[in-house]
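Sequence only, no structure available. Ideas?
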Amino acid sequence: MAASGSGDPLDAKSGQAPVAQRIDPTREKLTPAQLYVMRQAQLAQWQKTLPQRRTRNVVTGLGIGALVLAIYGYTIYSVSQERFLDELEDEAKAAQARAMARASSGP
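Reply:
I predicted one. Tokens follow.
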């Protein structure tokens, strides 16, 4: 039987692959070599997932940009369709003209 950690891919007792234990480098005393190996493993894992993450970020950015442009376009379109301000100005001018007419014909 192979000893644990001797390079045997299966655990002798359970027949399963060994699972890496999560360690906290701030609480456990690790040698510089162990820290170096950990950093190398983290860097390799980060570089392995980088293209997928970059693709997701680009898709997310394009989606947010499209949403912003759609909201902006809709806002510009709806403001250009608003005619009620023109109507209010016309009513204000008419009211002002009536007030001027009353003032001129006054007592």
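The helical segments are 32-81, 84-104.
Hope that gets you unstuck.
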